[in-house]
């Protein structure tokens, strides 16, 4: 990058969680499971559920408004909106287009990025590239998903895991030193996909492979299918790999990291990641007990909670990492 190219700084964070809480006890009444099993195997105690009529774009716009408020930026001043989601309101138009309209963000371009639970890190990196090249100065990056609408609530292997929500950051251009070194904002990102592992986690119906029909509904093809143990194994390995890759690109090690903000999929995955990164457990930000796995929204919700609680402060170094369907995984190192 030429030295004049700015870095991308997080100017504000925001989140939205639907008010409806579904506890493990509530799920006990739906499938054969127990609060004890769910807490021991996942660390999840409750999750939020978007009610009928509440869409991904509703949540995304609400989270985005919080981030814009904190940043002191008007929606009309945005240059780009990037929405990470795999559950847009409808197949067409993009979820981002609907969010753009709801925010009243003028005519700025709005695009979706679909990398499932890894989506936010991918979207953050896309937003960052536009700022680094000098094309845009102010970019809204949102992660939002309503996966509970795509869960088979009779399948105990998946229905206990997911929750709904949205999180957002506003990125702004920050001048870099004359030597071009990036010392503020997004310091590095690392993205990977292994499409040969797509069958480990997917929704078979509703796309061009199996367009929606009475038969696809009868066969329950619109619900998530998952090989939990395979995903678990790849998550541990690749959340660590993604963190190390992004840190390596930033020329840093875990020694300079204040906080690990990893995708909230399973507390046991997070514990393994902490162990392998040799990080003290209290450096691992965690809210999985209260929100479950919110897919693309997971990292920005956790980041916003941590910023507003005063845990993550200006100047702190945060390493983010996420893995999801694809499978795709990514890491980012950010100085707040
Ligand atoms: N309640 C009670 N028993 C259950 C439940 C449940 N909700 N779910 C599964 N079981 C049973 C199984 O049927 C099995 O019983 P069996 O031995 O009689 O066949 C037993 O518990 C053990 O099942 P496993 O699948 O081996 O359980 P495991 O310890 O692997 O935990 C889990 C399952 C929680 C899904 C885990 O594999 C996991 O978290 N994997 C990661 C998946 C994930 O996070 N996906 C989200 C999207 S991708 C991402 O975000 C990274």
Structure commentary:
Helix 3 crosses helix 4 and helix 8 (228-249) runs parallel beside helix 9. With 336 residues, the chain is of the alpha/beta class. The chain is 32% helix and 23% strand. Strand 4, helix 4 and strand 5 form a beta-alpha-beta unit. It has helices at residues 24-28, 35-42, 56-71, 95-103, 119-132, 156-159, 214-218, 228-249, 267-277, 288-291, 298-308, and strands at 7-16, 21-23, 46-48, 80-84, 110-113, 138-145, 165-174, 185-193, 201-202, 225-226, 259-262, 317-324, 328-335. The strands form four sheets. A five-stranded mixed sheet has the order 1-7-6-4-5, with helices on both faces. The protein has a four-stranded mixed sheet with strand order 8-13-12-11, with helices on both faces. Bound molecules: acetyl coenzyme *A (ACO). Acetyl coenzyme *A (ACO) binds at residues 33, 37-38, 41-42, 117, 156-157, 160-161, 201, 226, 228-229, 231-232, 235, 263, 265-266, 293, 323-324. Acetyl coenzyme *A binds at residues 33, 37-38, 41-42, 117, 156-157, 160-161, 201, 226, 228-229, 231-232, 235, 263, 265-266, 293, 323-324.
């Amino acid at each position: 990058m030429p030295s004049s190219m700015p870095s991308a700084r997080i100017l504000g964070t925001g989140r939205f969680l639907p008010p409806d809480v579904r506890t493990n006890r509530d799920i006990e009444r739906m499938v054969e499971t127990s609060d004890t099993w769910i807490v021991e195997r996942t660390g999840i105690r409750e999750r939020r559920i978007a009610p009928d009529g509440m869409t991904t774009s509703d949540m995304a716009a609400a989270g985005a408004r919080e981030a814009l408020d904190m940043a002191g930026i008007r929606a009309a001043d945005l240059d780009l909106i990037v929405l990470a989601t795999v559950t847009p309101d409808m197949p067409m138009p993009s979820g981002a287009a609907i969010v753009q309209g709801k925010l009243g963000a003028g005519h700025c371009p709005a695009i979706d990025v679909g990398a499932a639970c890894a989506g936010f890190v991918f979207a953050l990196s896309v937003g960052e590239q536009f700022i680094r090249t000098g094309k845009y100065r102010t970019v809204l990056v949102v992660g939002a998903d309503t996966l509970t609408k795509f869960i088979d609530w009779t399948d105990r292997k998946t229905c206990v895991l997911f929750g709904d929500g949205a999180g957002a950051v506003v990125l702004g251009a920050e001048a870099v030193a004359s030597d071009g070194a990036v010392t503020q904002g997004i310091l590095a990102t690392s993205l990977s996909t292994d499409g040969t592992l797509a069958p480990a986690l997917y929704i078979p119906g509703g796309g061009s492979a199996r367009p929606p029909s009475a038969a696809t509904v009868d066969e329950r093809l619109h619900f998530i299918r998952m090989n939990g143990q395979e995903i678990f194994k790849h998550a541990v390995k690749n959340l660590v790999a993604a963190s190390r890759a992004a840190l390596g690109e930033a020329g840093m090690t875990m020694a300079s990291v204040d906080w690990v903000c990893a995708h909230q999929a399973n507390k046991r995955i997070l514990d393994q990641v902490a162990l392998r990164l040799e990080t003290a457990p209290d450096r691992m930000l965690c809210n999985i007990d209260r929100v479950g796995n919110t897919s693309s929204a997971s990292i920005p919700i956790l980041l916003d909670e941590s910023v507003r609680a005063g845990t993550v402060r200006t100047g702190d170094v945060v390493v983010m990492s996420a893995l999801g369907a694809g499978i795709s995984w990514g890491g980012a190192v950010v100085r707040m």
